[in-house]
Amino acid sequence: MDGVPVAVASRLVVAVCAFVGLGFAVATLNDPWPALSQQASLFAGVVYLALALAGARAARVSGWLRGATTVLLLLVCLTYLTVIEGDLYSVSSLFEHLLTPLAALADWVLVGRAAVVVRWWYPLSWVLPPLLYLIYFLVADVGLYRGFLDPQSPDFATTVALFLVAVVAAGYLLYGIVRPVRTRAVAEAG
Question: Which domain of life is it from (predicted)?
Fold first, then answer.
């Protein structure tokens, strides 16, 4: 990795994890595309590969994209492991539900925190990718997740609201991780 900036290497690790998980899912599952896991992996792979290739040129959008993607991947991870009580026995499941979310979280926490710009309202906007999936879920009548996310259930609106609150809360946790480092770096530079 000599000569490769740590941020680029980190973003490539996230992209590779996402594409490995997605590749194994596509190769082994009958119809992987309706699932949020595969769509989140594709999104993460594209975002992190683009950020790695763009390097410093992506600084203006990096904070929003990395935050939105990390929150989405954490939603996939935590929902799969807790609500769905899924297992990590397959390669696709291991990468999509654990390794990629952890790699994105590590990239957020350990790499480039002082350089990233995160506005106070970003965590509110990071609900956009899960909301887009929810719209797709409803319009396409995906049929997955009926055990806890059934549009016909009287609890559907409450469940969706709780998920959105959890996404915003996770977003503000990520914001809180970056904010003190960013404030300190700006103070030291000034």
Answer: Bacteria
Compute the half-sphere exposure of residue 153: CA atoms within 13 Å on the CB side of its CA: 12
Contact 41, 22 (CB under 8 A): yes
Phi, then psi, of 144 in degrees rounded to 5? -80, 160
Tell me which of 190 and 80 has the higher pLDDT. Answer: 80
Greatest CA span in the chain, whole angstroms? 57
**Distance from C-alpha of 173 to C-alpha of 16, rounded to nearest angstrom:** 25
CB count in 10 Å sphere of residue 54: 14
Q: What is the DSSP letter of 31?
A: S
Cβ atoms of 26 and 32 within 8 Å: the answer is yes
Go through 21-45 and write b for each residue having 16 or more CB atoms within 10 A of its CB, e for each that does not: bbebbeeeeeebebbbbbbbbbbbb
Burial class (CB in 10 A: 0-12, 13-18, 19+), 177: middle
